């Protein structure tokens, strides 16, 4: 940016020198251009002098650090006018701004009304010449600043995620630099409408979100009556409310009835196999577990207005405008905290997809980037101080066998302390000064394998003995770490041994599980199956992102999926994009 400012100063000095020498005073009434002489603008303002507009712009931008480089480079020529006001160009710009809603941005986020009002007032011929130059300069600067805001936002995001999420966000994203602005200013000078139109993200997922948003907008015009029952229905049940379920699923396309049954309500009264499949498609689409019945939880979701989904799409369009700076390696792991899911992928292989458990609302899983460093078999859990004081000590106080039953040990000053020697009646969280370690084994809270990566939050991916939580819809249950549903499949992915059965058996054998393959069983029987070390290093780099998307896709899948906004991060984005928030932020009252 310093280089850009230096260039700007040189441009200003040179422009001021040439500006005085090249000053012209051609009036519109003296113009030799037929299109100018015949224009409405020329008839309204026959004595208009384009040079005077340049003078006004030149005076206005001297203290405007953002606009100074653009207009000085352009010798103070306006962007939105030539010999006359280019109303067609302005209208094209306003048309783009009016469509900003389909990109998740409220139209009022921009100065659309002000630009339109100024254009109309100039086009109506209501000003004398002195007022005209001021209004045209005002229109040009506001339109250009709005274009810069629009293009920059579409290119990098309108919001800064670090400011939004603060300490819970540690993913590096790009921001505009001097090269970006130089190219942007050149594009605005050459053809603003082209550079504005080309600023929209080309990411295919982003385009899917836009298409989905527009599709929902069209479907909102169709009649949608809420389902009026909250009873539970099973396959084969017959009820008039099942017809309401069918109609709702037909609206968003999960259910396509046979033949002309779309016109025959009686054919929807039975919960048949086809309708149940459509209900489960809807559940998958909304990150709900599939079931063989339909009850209140699903019906409540079916009764959500289509605005519910459009709101999610708006928030996630902004997320997809943020450009991560860290590149993905060939082997990549992506954790979506919102959907509590994990995808491990590599070229020319089917992705490994699984459920995960993430942090509660009070112990949010941080959003971060890193690389998998190593795997730890049979991990020891060094219980964090807060958990030791507020949970383990409290449970031990209620149940004197708790620590022993959970294979835990107490330490003070590095030496083990017998838990039975402590007067637990006198223990409070503030007085509890012991450290706790849980020994390896099947009951260890970290399970049998832990996936380690550098981060500032002391979190990691790990196995868990509590498997039941993976069947829940809401899997925000941890203290911040990510519990993985398929730890051994993920370990094989990381270690590049997905097809090496003997190596897999060695890993199983290392965590006291029996071998699975015939070759492994034979080696074990002959006492030749060797255990692996507890620390295993992947041969390839494995990138990791833990991020948050409430509208997302899976590899090789065209469907848009939705997740509940448990952390309230969608609202954080949408509130920041609210035009009122912009006004209060500028006034310093936010």
Task: Provide a quick synopsis of the model.
The chain is of the alpha+beta class. It folds into 3 domains: 2-200, no CATH class; 233-302, Muramoyl-pentapeptide Carboxypeptidase, domain 1; 327-564, L,D-transpeptidase catalytic domain-like, CATH 2.40.440.10.
* Architecture (CATH level 2) name of the largest domain: Beta Barrel
Name of the CATH superfamily of the largest domain? L,D-transpeptidase catalytic domain-like
How many angstroms separate the termini? 28 Å
Count of all domains: 3
Helix/strand structural class: alpha+beta
Description:
The protein has 590 residues and is an alpha+beta fold. It folds into three domains: 2-200, no CATH class; 233-302, PGBD-like superfamily/PGBD (Muramoyl-pentapeptide Carboxypeptidase, domain 1), CATH 1.10.101.10; 327-564, L,D-transpeptidase catalytic domain-like. The chain is 42% helix and 13% strand. An eight-stranded mixed barrel has the order 4-5-6-15-13-12-7-17. α4 crosses α8 (129-156), α6 packs antiparallel against α7 (112-123) and α12 packs antiparallel against α16. Residues 1-22 have low confidence and may be disordered.
Task: Compile the SSE list and pairings.
Elements lengths: L1 H20 L12 H4 L2 H5 L5 H11 L7 H6 L13 H12 L13 H12 L5 H28 L4 H5 L3 E2 L7 H13 L1 H6 L6 H16 L13 E2 L5 H13 L20 H13 L7 E2 L1 H7 L3 H16 L9 E6 L4 E5 L6 E8 L7 E11 L3 E2 L2 H14 L3 H4 L2 E5 L2 E3 L17 E4 L10 E5 L7 E2 L13 E3 L3 E3 L2 H9 L5 H10 L7 H8 L9 E2 L5 E6 L3 E2 L8 E2 L6 H8 L2 H9 L3
Parallel strand pairs: 1-7, 4-17, 6-14, 13-15
Antiparallel strand pairs: 2-3, 4-5, 5-6, 6-15, 7-12, 7-16, 7-17, 8-11, 9-10, 9-11, 12-13, 18-19
